[in-house]
Specification:
Elements (H helix, E strand, L loop, with lengths): L16 H19 L4 H22 L8 E5 L1 H4 L9 E7 L5 H16 L4 E7 H10 L1 H8 L2 E5 L1 H12 L6 H18 L18 H15 L15 H25 L11 H7 L7 H33 L8 E3 L4 E4 L2 E4 L9 H12 L5 E2 L1 H13 L8 H12 L3 H11 L2 H5 L1 H6 L13 H14 L10 H9 L3 H10 L10 H15 L4 H12 L3 H8 L5 H11 L2 H16 L8 H20 L7 H17 L5 H8 L6 H4 L2 H13 L7 E4 L8 E8 L4 H11 L2 E7 L7 E10 L8 H15 L23 E5 L7 E8 L4 H11 L2 E11 L2 E10 L7 H20 L1
Parallel strand pairs: 2-3, 7-8
Antiparallel strand pairs: 1-2, 1-4, 5-6, 6-7, 9-10, 10-12, 11-12, 11-15, 13-14, 14-16, 15-16
Helix pairs in contact: 1-2, 5-6, 5-7, 8-9, 9-12, 10-11, 10-12, 11-12, 12-14, 13-15, 13-16, 16-19, 19-21, 19-26, 21-23, 22-23, 24-27, 25-27, 26-27, 28-31, 32-33, 32-34, 34-35
Cofactor: Mg(2+)
GO molecular function: [protein-PII] uridylyltransferase activity; guanosine-3',5'-bis(diphosphate) 3'-diphosphatase activity; phosphoric diester hydrolase activity
Keywords: Hydrolase, Magnesium, Multifunctional enzyme, Nucleotidyltransferase, Repeat, Transferase
């Protein structure tokens, strides 16, 4: 390893805060320059030596070097002699006895000086007995003590601590292993069990630096070694595995070192903000997203290798070194594999010379529910043969048969598909899958890389087949259970995003890949056409449900004509729901689920009626009115007063709302005794998975902007809006809202607060809102405002699509522009896709006519001007 050139300045003889800060700043500048030329290993060791010298100087300034009852010890990463530019400096000050008042003052001044120098210091002052007791009680403290290093002070006291820590009664190998494994499991759970997060934590992420350290800690505790290199001699890991771990660690260290330099603090989260600059520091270039993609693809390959090695070596340690698997029951599976406890194990080292055994391994896992994983010896073989593969596994006919058998197996999408993804066998089988491994998605809509998103989609599809999840999505469960060929759904899931990152329309390119797959695997023409259609149209249902008015019979008819039959509808519905849920754990909500379900049921009804006989709009109005009338009359309202109210309401109202909603609105309007006063209703219980806000009041200028501004001030997200003005000049506006966490508003006090805010907005008593600044993540995205005019179903209406950055107060600003341009809003569809808002408005002029060319041009210019100014600000 190339050593760092020493930093050649000595510390000032007398402590001066400014002088020391200057010295540290010079070292940081030297580190930045040296990073381009020297190994990262030498640089982290150079900073540890630099801090050693700093501590020695300050220790002496406080006359602590004259006190032989104290010992200054580096622990944790600093104990290993490794410090990144802004890493914490963890110190243990060991004392023979309780501190005197003078010692307390000296040590307080020592630590204060470190803080004054803006160093992140973690310190503890303890006696030997206190240190040992805390170490026995806390695995984190015990781990830090394992890597301690004496800096200054009483050497004999340090040796006593060192001997006590290495004694078997401090932590046995078994206890230490179990504690570290549990600690790792908890840490992985915080990251949803995946290494493929788009903003990973370089230390804590699965496959990150902590996983490398854990591999070393458990073995070093057992063998009483200090370095990973020594473990090769104990046959805990092979020379190749040691070199691979060191290579992975070096790359993660490079990223972490560059991240610290870029952030200017101890930052381990590789946030979108830092990714371009870190990539440039690492030499990947400066050509925007392509630079980041190159860096992150290598990162995800690295953490995948670390995850494999971590699992294999910890399992090897438990089974072969601690002998915890000696009593495992052994059961033969075939001529090549056996069941060893709950792990599948190859019978000899040449088992994978037959390439189809790579697939048969996973077929056995699907076929035997007792198998939970792969034995460490077999995982070693799998990793070795995977590196030597020439061509793709799908080139072998026997492999193709086994792959389809897995897709058709009732448990093929359970443990098998997860392990095939985890251990790179999916990438070895499908060349297109290799392209999406670690493929970034530069938006706030997706939380995972393309391959991990697809893996999660497949797991969602599999859940539909399991009885224990029947109550989760009962309609999907029912559909999948009745499917004759659910494997077609799984194959469509595999290919739906497989062409991302290639340029062009990924849906069309993916459909072509799916057709080629079907041809190679000799699927029927019908199955091939269904899979490729699902891949090509996998966004159709989501786009229709979230961006169009699905209560408009014409929208349903157009969607049904594209889908063509109920079989395709069933497959598409299940795929769409699983796809949306796999993008980001925080984005799914019951409102989206209700939209998809309503569209599915409406389209199913259209198919069963026959597309040539669509439901007439007048039939739907009469049907909804008849049911609402019946329910209202049961509440003692007369038919005359009901019909008098309805005579003032436009016909569209009775299409856009179901009978229960009509009753909810009308019963309150009929009881409302002060017609000039606003009526605001907020649903106390969720309606179709959301909270619905209904406003009935005389129309007035800029009402929409004031209403959405009031809702914005209450920190609720608007998902839909129906804006309607009656024949008598009253508005009947409905807003579908959810809390920021995607849940309906349920707190009674919160409901009342929203209601009061809206009443004040209608009365004009609310000052204009000062909108929040863009969040950290939002500031990384550039979404230039775009305004489009789309053909509508009414000659008196114009459909406007507005795409822009989802900045705080966006809807209120749009409403202000509509008011300024004398535009009336009749309906709004609010769609947020991560950082991007795509909102649709049905509008007209003040004279209730569609916008002509000049009016459209003026509106477009004004909107873009206002929204560009906002996003730039």
């Amino acid at each position: 390893m190339k050593e760092a050139v020493a930093f050649q300045k000595s510390w000032p003889s007398q402590f001066s805060l400014d002088g020391y800060k200057k010295h540290m700043a010079e070292f940081l500048r030297w580190s930045e320059l040296a990073f381009e030329q020297q190994s990262v290993q030498s640089l982290v060791k150079a900073r540890a030596r630099f801090i050693d010298q700093l501590l020695a100087a300050l220790w002496q300034h406080q006359d602590l070097h004259q006190d032989n009852t104290l010992c200054l010890i580096a622990v944790g990463g600093y104990g290993r002699g490794e410090l990144h530019p802004f890493s914490d400096i963890d110190l243990l000050i060991l004392s023979e006895q309780q501190l005197t008042a003078q010692q307390q003052d000296q040590l307080s001044a020592f630590i204060t000086q470190l803080w004054d120098l803006k160093l992140e210091v973690g310190h503890s002052v303890r006696t030997l007995d206190e240190t040992l007791q805390l170490g026995k009680d806390d695995i984190t403290i015990a781990t830090n003590l394992m890597e301690m290093r004496r800096l200054l002070g009483n050497k004999a006291l340090y040796e006593r601590l060192h001997q006590a820590i290495n004694a078997t009664d401090f932590w046995t190998s078994q206890q230490f292993f179990e504690a570290k494994r549990h600690e790792q499991q908890q840490r992985h759970a915080q990251y949803h069990g995946t290494a493929y997060n788009l903003e990973p934590n370089l230390k804590a992420n699965p496959g990150g630096l902590r996983d490398i350290q854990t591999v070393g800690w458990v073995a070093k505790r057992h063998f009483q070694t200090r370095t990973m290199r020594e473990l090769v001699a104990y046959q805990y890991l092979t020379e190749d595995e040691y070199q691979e771990l060191m290579e992975c660690e070096a790359y993660l260290w490079q990223m972490r070192f560059a991240l610290h330099l870029e952030a200017g603090r101890n930052e381990n989260r590789l946030l979108f903000d830092y990714q371009p600059a870190v990539a440039e520091r690492l030499g990947f270039g400066n050509d925007g997203k392509a630079t980041v993609e190159r860096m992150m693809k290598r990162f995800f390959r690295t953490v995948q290798r670390v995850s494999e090695l971590n699992e294999m070596l910890l399992q090897h340690f438990e089974g072969s070194i601690l002998n915890n698997h000696q009593s495992a029951k052994v059961q033969p599976l075939d001529d090549s594999f056996e069941l060893h406890g709950h792990l599948i194990k190859a019978l000899d080292n040449s088992v994978f010379a037959r390439r189809d055994n790579l697939l048969k391994l996973f077929w056995h896992i699907a076929n035997n529910s007792n198998i939970t994983g792969i034995h460490s010896d077999t995982l070693r073989l799998l990793r070795q043969v995977r590196r030597r593969l020439m061509g793709d596994l799908q080139d072998y006919e026997a492999c193709r048969r086994l792959f389809l058998a897995l897709m058709r197996h009732p448990r093929g999408m359970d443990t098998s598909i997860t392990l095939m993804h985890k251990y790179g066998i999916l990438a070895a089988y499908l060349p297109q899958w290799r392209n999406i491994v670690g493929q970034m998605q530069f938006d706030l809509f997706h939380a995972y890389t393309v391959d991990e998103h697809t893996h999660r989609l497949l797991k969602n599809l599999y859940r539909y087949t399991l009885p224990e999840y029947d109550n989760e999505f009962p309609l999907c469960s029912d559909i999948v259970r009745r499917m004759e060929k659910p494997e077609l759904l799984f194959l469509a899931g595999i290919f739906h995003d497989i062409a991302k990152g290639r340029g062009g329309d990924h849906s069309e390119l993916g459909a072509m890949d799916a057709k080629e797959f079907c041809r190679l695997h000799k699927l029927s023409d019908f199955d091939s056409k269904l899979i490729s259609w699902l891949v090509e149209q996998h966004l159709l249902m989501s786009v229709t449900a979230q961006r169009k008015d699905i209560h408009d019979p014409q929208v349903v008819t157009e969607f049904a004509e594209k889908v063509r039959d109920e079989t395709r509808l069933n497959y598409l519905y299940c795929l769409t729901l699983a796809d949306i849920r796999a993008t980001n754990d925080n984005l799914w909500n019951d409102w989206k689920g209700s939209l998809l379900r309503d569209l599915y049921l409406s389209t199913q009804k259209a198919f069963r009626r026959g597309l040539e006989k669509p439901m007439d709009m007048r039939d739907q109005i009469r049907e909804n009115q008849a049911e609402a009338l019946r329910l209202l009359q049961r509440q003692a309202f007369t038919k005359t007063e009901i019909q008098h109210l309805w005579s003032r309401i436009k016909a569209d109202y009775f299409i856009r709302y179901n009978p229960k909603q009509i009753v909810w609105h009308c019963e309150h309007i009929l009881r409302h005794k002060e017609p000039k006063q606003p009526l605001v209703l907020v649903s106390k219980a969720p309606i179709r998975g959301s909270t619905q806000v209904f406003v009935y009041t005389p129309d007035q200028p800029n009402l929409f902007a004031r209403l959405v501004s009031a809702l914005d001030s209450k920190k609720v997200a608007i998902f839909d809006a129906q804006i309607m003005t009656n024949k008598d000049g009253y508005v009947m506006d409905t807003f579908v809202v959810l809390e920021q966490n995607g849940q309906p508003v349920t707190s009674p006090s919160r409901v009342q607060s929203i209601k009061r805010s809206l009443e004040q907005a209608i009365a004009g008593k609310v000052e204009p809102q000062r909108h929040s600044k863009l969040s950290r993540q939002m500031r990384q995205f550039n979404v230039p405002p775009k305004v489009s005019f789309l053909p509508g179903n009414s000659k008196n209406r114009t459909m406007v699509e507005i795409a822009a950055l989802d900045a705080p107060g966006l809807l209120a600003r749009i409403g202000d522009v509509f008011q300024q341009c004398a535009i009336q809003i009749h309906a709004a569809k609010i769609t947020t896709l991560g950082e991007r808002a795509e909102d649709f408005f049905m509008v007209s002029t003040a004279e209730d006519t569609a916008l002509d060319f000049d009016q459209q041009s003026q509106l477009k210019r004004t909107l873009i001007d206002h929204l560009t100014h906002v996003t730039e600000g």
